[in-house]
Design brief:
five-stranded antiparallel sheet; globular; alpha+beta; 817 residues
Length: 817
């Protein structure tokens, strides 16, 4: 249920939404009748030299890499990489130790240039860009293009200009596209130009565009962008129309349509840029409604590469994703499904794309081949009546002339949730990332052979490449011609390795990507090893096997008090991301808790990504049912294996993890007698599905999940899942999945965190539970974060969440530790 709208946080989405993970030198679990344990550890310490304690201040200082952009190959500069990062800027410290640590901290977003070392080019050449973004702190969505400085050369010719573009408000009120150029006539180039807007006609309508996303042609001559059109509001009264809940809660106008515009940008200095030309259709361009699913790809639009045989500018075709509106609550409405179309920038002709456009299947992620002859995309694999939240997708491609039918991969990738990156190696393969078990892997699909293959990412200097990187994210390929199509930039990390930017080459024959690090953002974290131990474990639960990470003190899990962290989603997952960064969701301090003597269970219960479509769809009409049993049975099994206490168990989570924590609060002892929760921490969690319907921005998700609304009768419900009971009334199913209807069972002290402006899970959910617990005499505390939406992004609010969670667990710990 996690949601972010701005494309600037694509990389952060991949962390918060756990779409990546990697490995700690473990084999894939081989399950026996009861339990399988695979020992690994992320500790690099010895008994003689204990590692220093990892604090939450260490955690907040871990640099997050949000995105990368890889430049075209120039004859003089080679390839240059840009990275957008988020870094903490502490201004004052707290007590610096103990259980609680305070600091005045803010996150600064920076744009950093990273040369790949293929030529004499250095990052100093782009110092103007870095300085500009450091000053304004809001640069994002980076792109590169290369064009002849004298207008008559081609790529690789002497006299090129390398242009970097990015989004920034530049200290103003609206976000615009900025650019800086570097003339690359020699390897020893001068500094790039001072950043300036790509177009800014003073006093014209262009100055009013608050740009959400953009793309440019390879020669920098044409740009496309979207801006949000809002509905006028009255300062006296705000009328509620359809689902403008965000409008009401956030006290700001709601974007009702993302409008697509294009503009030609003359390369000749001093020439006035024309006013952008905007489409007048009613469709909304982009993925606004579907960002509810934490999809990591912006999936907005992409220009077809200019044909080498055609004159520059003769035809500029844009493939773009569109929906009927931006309303998140319409995400499941297939009357007018999301699809993609082509726009001829010159004639303004729009051609609908895809195949059987009226079949009710969603289509998005348009991705062009280097030749421009093929267009890949992702489509819904299931019929239009399927449970859409399960997100079962297949890769498809069509030829550029848009035949009525396109080829789709009917077998599907291993998890059937691919995130397309682009075509590689003479357009013979499509590269994508996907979660597999507790790893996020880099994969390729052969366009001709129609087969999937997982790539091995190895470090160029490692004797044993296995286990170096377990989570791959923020992947980018060089823009421009296919001559550099084997090069790749990615962000890699593992349980004990903080994220860094890597650059390398892909060998299709060996299915190996050999990389070397370009960045050293997290040198301080690597210098302070985590004093923890990690096991990858699995246990039988019902008719399935469930896998988890168990993070414990370096001495192991034996006899330690146990904490379970339920991930958001439901179709997200825990992964082998860097433990020092925290867990998915609100970045709960997993490593800090482990170093304090707790074992932290990170279970990938049914419904999680990474284990195939059947596993992901197994919670249809059963939220808080068998998935909760998976969580609770994991606690029991860890107790059996490691002799942990069943009377000092703590459960916490955010979003869907908060929902499961509330369900554990009211059902743990009922389903597993002898299991007693010492405390519960609930962040942004649903506690009542009935009141959630109609009050959340995605209230319609429940009708899609349960086959109808709670007021519907079984006779009106189309139940496509034979495993779910179709005889039970919808009212019963909604109540069964709501903690509030079992509140009499709640006894554990409960801490609640909630954003004041949360439209995904409105704050009334937390108020209901908090009030009921108070009325029943159960210890409870509720912390509300002003200005925060579904998941707080403010550094000080995150520190508050981490501190209060640790305090709550420690205060109610009944173990001897």
């Amino acid at each position: 249920m996690t949601s972010f709208r701005a494309s600037a946080v694509v990389g952060l989405l991949m962390h918060l939404c756990a779409l990546q993970c990697h490995h700690c030198n473990v084999a894939k679990p081989q399950h026996d009748d009861t339990w399988t344990r695979h020992g690994t550890h992320s500790s690099r310490t010895t008994a003689a030299t204990p590692a220093p304690s990892w604090s939450i201040l260490d955690q907040v200082n871990v640099t997050t890499i949000l995105e990368t952009a890889t430049s075209p190959m120039s004859s003089n500069t080679g390839i240059v990489v840009a990275a957008v990062v988020s870094q903490a800027m502490p201004s004052a410290g707290g007590n610096g130790g103990g259980e609680r640590q305070d600091a005045a901290v803010t996150f600064a977003q920076r744009l950093v240039i990273l040369p790949t070392g293929q030529s004499g080019e250095t990052a100093a050449s782009f110092a103007n860009v870095t300085s500009f973004c450091d000053t304004h702190g809001d640069c994002s969505t980076v792109a590169w293009c290369l064009y002849p400085a004298n207008g008559d050369g081609g790529e690789g010719a002497k006299g090129e200009r390398l242009r970097i573009t990015f989004l920034s408000a530049g200290g103003g009120k609206v976000t615009r596209v900025w650019f800086s150029e570097l003339e690359v006539t020699t390897a020893a180039s001068a500094s790039s130009s001072t950043p300036m807007p790509v177009w800014a006609n003073s006093g014209s309508v262009s100055d009013t565009y608050d740009i959400m996303y953009y793309a440019a042609t390879g020669d920098c001559a044409t740009y496309a962008f979207t801006y949000g059109r809002t509905r006028p509001t009255s300062p006296v009264a705000r009328e509620v129309r359809e689902d403008v809940l965000i409008d009401v809660i956030g006290n700001a106008p709601t974007v009702v349509q993302n409008v697509l515009c294009t503009v030609a940008v003359p390369m000749t200095p001093g020439v006035t840029v024309a006013t952008p030309d905007c489409l007048t259709t009613n469709d909304s361009v982009g993925m606004a409604a579907w960002l509810i699913s934490c999809w990591s790809h912006p999936s907005q639009f992409a220009f077809q590469p200019l044909s080498a045989s055609s004159a520059a500018g003769s035809k500029r075709t844009l493939a773009f994703t569109h929906t009927k509106n931006t309303r998140a609550n319409d995400w499941a409405d297939l009357d007018e499904p999301m699809g993609w179309s082509l726009l001829d920038v010159g004639t303004r002709k729009v051609t609908r794309g895809g195949f059987s456009i009226d079949d009710g299947r969603l289509r998005f992620q348009p991705t062009w081949s280097h030749s421009g002859e093929r267009l890949a995309f992702v489509t819904l694999a299931e019929p239009s009546t399927a449970w859409l939240w399960s997100q079962v997708w297949n890769i498809c491609f069509a030829s550029a002339d848009l035949p009525t039918m396109a080829y789709c991969d009917t077998v599907g990738s291993p998890d059937q949730e691919p995130n397309l990156i682009g075509f590689v190696l003479d357009d013979e393969y499509i590269l994508y990332t996907e979660q597999h078990s507790t790893a996020v892997t880099l994969n390729m699909w052969s366009v001709d052979a129609k087969t999937h293959k997982e790539l091995r990412v190895q470090h160029a200097t490692e004797a044993d490449p296995l286990g170096v990187l377990r989570v791959i994210s923020a992947v980018s390929l060089p823009s421009g011609s296919p001559q550099s199509a084997s090069y790749i930039t990615l962000v890699g990390e593992a349980l004990d390795s903080p994220p860094e930017v890597y650059f390398g080459e892909l060998d299709a024959k060996t299915a190996v990507v050999t990389v070397r690090p370009l960045s050293n953002f997290n040198a301080a974290a690597r210098a302070k090893p985590l004093n923890v131990h990690t096991d990858v474990i699995a246990w039988p639960s019902g008719n399935l096997s469930v896998e988890a990470l168990l993070v414990s003190p370096a001495s192991g899990a034996e006899g330690k008090p146990l904490v379970a962290f339920a991930h958001p989603g439901p179709n997200m997952a825990h992964a082998e991301t860097y433990l020092g960064w925290g867990g998915v969701g609100a970045r709960y301090p997993v490593a800090t808790l482990a170093e304090m003597g707790y074992s932290v269970l990170l279970p990938n219960i049914r419904g999680s990504a990474g284990y195939g479509a059947k596993f992901r769809t197994s919670i249809y009409r059963d939220w808080g049912g068998e998935d909760l049993d998976d969580l609770l049975s994991g606690l029991v099994e860890v107790h059996k294996l490691f002799n942990t206490s069943t009377s000092s168990v703590h459960v916490f989570g955010w979003s869907y993890g908060g929902f499961l924590s509330a369900m554990a609060l009211t059902h743990a002892s009922e389903r597993f007698p002898g299991l007693r929760l010492a405390s519960v921490c609930i962040g942004g969690g649903i506690v009542d599905l009935i009141s959630h319907t109609g009050t959340a921005d995605i209230g319609k998700i429940l009708s899609n999940t349960y086959g109808g609304y709670y007021w519907d009768t079984p006779a009106t419900v189309a139940d496509s899942n034979s495993a779910a009971s179709s005889s039970a009334s919808l009212m019963h199913l909604y109540q069964r999945s709501s903690a509030m209807f079992s509140i009499v069972n709640a006894t554990a002290p409960t801490l609640l965190h909630h954003g004041a402006h949360d439209p995904r899970v409105p704050i009334l959910q937390a108020f209901q539970l908090h009030y009921a617990l108070q009325a029943r005499g159960v210890e409870t505390r509720m912390l509300v974060y002003p200005g925060s939406g579904h998941i707080p992004g403010d550094a000080e609010q995150l520190l508050s969440i981490w501190n209060s969670t640790i305090e709550w667990i420690v205060r109610h710990d009944t173990s001897d530790t």
